[in-house]
Design goal:
8 helices; four-stranded antiparallel sheet; Jelly Rolls; 240 residues; Arc Repressor Mutant, subunit A; 2 domains; globular
Length: 240
């Protein structure tokens, strides 16, 4: 059975959770999907909302935030292409999601998607694998926040972005170049990394002076050699 047109041309078809599906299963998922574009700064969903849909991120970056009872907020994660957005098997959103950049999503209604999870074990298995990857990433971030220096924190954040935006070479090799746009403002980076804005700016300047990164503009960044950045981040040997 042939794939549906928009699935066959999807840029994340192989790497997203739907990559685990056979053609007939993919057609069933496609029948409930709807593509949606969200401009930077717009809310994807609120932590006060009931969970109405899940999504594959096709392009762009989504910022996840938790809000404390007194109104204080903390950025707790970033979701990139081809990540899965949403908390399956829950009726409420556990966090506030905002488009950090222009975002394109492939959305699935809550109830219909969970029904497919029950029907297609391969889809459920892929979602479980993604959940374990997110758990590993959260533990790595705990290490970053608790033990790494300011320089290592900034380098680790940039290395995370570099691994998602390789210019050349294979994604599991570190000695490659990367070019990307910073999805966060300096203030958001400070919030995410547990630093001050001044420290973020100072460490970015140090990395630029050492030739570890090149700042094309205030948001556009180039990494000539990801291995060099990995060494500063204390992330040698970590693959994507």
């Amino acid at each position: 059975m042939p794939q549906t047109p928009h699935c066959s041309s999807c840029p994340v078809r192989v790497t997203a959770i739907c990559g685990a599906l056979k053609d007939d299963e993919l057609k069933a998922l496609s029948m409930i999907s709807r593509q949606r574009r969200i401009p930077a700064g717009q809310v994807v969903f609120s932590d006060q909302d009931s969970s109405r849909f899940f999504a594959n991120v096709l392009s762009g970056t989504v910022k996840l935030t938790k809000t404390m009872p007194d109104g204080r907020q903390q950025i707790v994660g970033l979701v990139f292409s081809p990540d899965f957005l949403g908390r399956a098997f829950s009726f409420n959103n556990p966090y506030f999601a905002e488009a950090a950049s222009d975002v394109e999503l492939c959305c699935f209604p809550h109830d219909a998607f969970e029904s497919l999870l029950k029907d297609y074990p391969s889809l459920q298995h892929r979602l479980f694998e993604n959940t374990l990857d997110e758990l590993d990433a959260a533990r790595e971030w705990m290490l970053l926040l608790g033990r790494k220096t300011a320089e290592e924190k900034i380098a680790s954040f940039l290395y995370l972005l570099a691994r998602r935006h390789h210019v050349d070479g294979c994604a599991n090799q570190q000695s490659v170049a990367a070019s990307f746009e910073l999805p966060l403002t300096r203030a958001d980076m400070a919030d995410y990394l547990g630093l001050t804005i001044e420290t973020v700016s100072r460490q970015l300047t140090k990395l630029k002076t050492r030739g570890i990164v090149r700042m094309v503009s205030s948001r556009q960044m180039e990494v000539p050699d990801s291995a060099a950045l990995a060494r500063v981040a204390g992330a040698e040997g970590i693959s994507n």
